[in-house]
Amino acid sequence: MSTLIALIVIAAVVILIVILGLVVFTARTARKVEAALPPRGKFMQVGSERIHYVDRGGAGPAIVMIHGLGGNLMHFTYALADELAGDFRVIIVDRPACGYSERPEGAPADLKAQAATLAKFMRALGLKQPLVVGHSLGGALSLAIALDHPDCAGALALIAPLTHVPDNVPDVLKGLIIHSPALRKVNAWTLATPLGIRRGAAALKEVFAPEPAPADFPIRAGGLLGLRPKAFCAASSDAVLAEYVLPNYVARYASLALPMGMLFGKGDRLLDYHAQGEAMKVVCPALDLELMEGGHMLPMTAPDRCAALIRRVAARQQEVARVA
User: Fold this and answer.
1) 210 upstream amide cis, omega within 30 of 0
2) Rounded to an integer, what distance in angstroms lies between the CA atom of residue 6 and that of residue 289?
3) What is the pLDDT of residues 295-310, one digit of tens each?
4) In which region does residue 183 sit, left (phi positive, over 0), alpha (psi from -120 to 50) or beta (all else)?
5) Which residues contact 50 (CB under 8 A, 6 or more apart)?
6) Segments making up each domain of the chain, as ranges
7) For the segment 25-46, what is each residue's pLDDT rounded down to a tens digit?
8) Most distant CA pair in the chain, distance
9) Sheet holding 155-159, edge to edge
10) In the list 40, 75, 97, 307, which could disulfide-bond 103, CB 3.0-4.6 Å?
11) Which of these CATH numbers, 3.40.50.1000, 3.40.50.1820, 2.40.10.10, 2.40.50.140, describes 34-323?
């Protein structure tokens, strides 16, 4: 019996050492990542949340750009923002709890809450019905803003957007589906970072397919920021909560009357263009839906096509404003 107890104690100590080692490794990795990729923009306190954003300025119409699941504002500064510079005031935001934006633990994190936060952010900047650009989950959030806060969205340009609850979760995202906040945090501080490093190349291949992932994605597009525990927790909560809130917005899509455009890649392996793009066109016949060859990460792989969509929607917005 004493031998068995000794073995149990030794096993417990080994497990504790492994867990502590994973926590230390995760903390060190997060510090190194943040040292290599410090904040690029400004900060604004919005209630209990702190929002990180880049404001490119400019005298043209305002555009607010919202990134997708597990992303950050550098997904837009990679190429697309430069395509629009000079003609628009480009404002790019880290969604609540993403990138360098901060959200208190336990604060509401669903689409409705994020829409309310970003609406307050836009009003604080003095924006009047800007054109809102949303990629992936940022598309769902853009739609939520337009429905809940119409003064904060004069038009929508949606790039490979999430518009309906998918029938299946893509394999590359299944690891994010953790419903327990406590278990999510444990995972974030132990396994998520080393697994993210080990599986990173394969995951990027799937996310960008059929195009190749850019070799400079980890640094130039801020991909390494996703290795931090806060990034995993934010992505996991976003992936879980969108499923519960999105149907309430889907039921209201037909009421949207603002100019809207959408660009979707027919080879997208994360979101199906039939179920997300064409389904939206059925509900909103006035939607300018453009399909192209390509995958999910169009802001980086096809910035020229994305910019053309945005310019088209902006022109339509100005035309509607003149008639009104």
Assistant:
1) yes
2) 67
3) 999 999 999 999 999 9
4) alpha
5) 43, 44, 101, 102
6) 34-323
7) 999 999 999 999 999 999 999 9
8) 87
9) 42-46, 49-55, 89-93, 62-66, 131-135, 155-159, 260-265, 288-292
10) 97
11) 3.40.50.1820
% of the chain exceeding 70 in pLDDT:
99
- DSSP labels, 122-191: HHHTT--SPEEEEETHHHHHHHHHHHH-GGG-SEEEEES---S--SS--GGGGGG----HHHHHHHHHHT
User: How many whole angstroms separate alpha carbon 76 and alpha carbon 171?
Assistant: 25
| H helices present in the chain, as ranges | 2-36, 74-77, 80-84, 111-124, 137-148, 181-190, 192-208, 217-220, 229-250, 273, 279-283, 298-301, 303-323
Alpha-carbon gap, residue 98 to 237, rounded angstroms: 11
Mean pLDDT estimate for the chain:
95
- Find all residues with CB under 8 Å of 30, minimum gap 6, and list them: 193, 227, 228, 229, 230
